[in-house]
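Next up, sample data.

:::
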Amino acid sequence: MRVVVADDQTVVREGIVMLLGLLPGIEVVGSAADGEEAVRLVAELAPEVVLMDLRMPRCDGVEATRRIRSGHPGTEVVALTTYADDDSLFSALRAGARGYLTKDAGGEEIAKAVADVRSGAAGLSPEVQRRLLDRVVAEPQEPEPEPELGSEAESGGEVDPEAGELPDGLTSREAEVISLIAGGLSNAEICRVLHVSPATVKSHINSLFAKTGSRDRAQAVRYAFRNGLARPRDDDVT
């Protein structure tokens, strides 16, 4: 995979470039000292992935990510930053980043995030996934109608994709897939649970993304919780 590294600190930038150069399957084709240069290099070099620092002069990483995703949708962005606060995290994801790592990540974690976003998955560390789920669970939800006595909804537990009318034309299988995504399962894990091929899972994901207006898995998780296709486990809301 062709990768561009963007970071305004020379020592950090060169260190990341050196680290990536040791990883199989990754070719660093350029490095940028600010967001403006990152956007220019993407236009010139068409990399598959950009590792993007968020705090940079001239054009910060969030704005650079927004411009790259808008003008060059074939290039994915992984935010690689010192900052782990919610404002930085959600600003980067809203701008179009499909991955988010802090700079204490090791080479193996960076390589996995790069491969994940290139394959269409989200390259989020477990900590970031948990905080994203916490944020979704904490947001005010639309009041749900009271279930009728004896209904399945009364018993709680796992969401049944077969029960009731599904939103936005989702099929029962697509509802099942989005529920599994919200549960944190990867494509490979969904294949094993549903006993289907990777191509079938990707087809379901592409279809449900289009129907729900989700750009990535993070938005699909948000959609699933808001529309009752997934529920937090008891230990997620303590």
Q: What stands out?
A: Residues 142-158, 234-238 have pLDDT under 50 and may be disordered. The chain has two domains: 2-126, 140-236. Strands lie at 2-6, 27-32, 49-52, 76-81, 99-102, 123-124. Residues 67 and 193 are 38 Å apart (CA to CA).
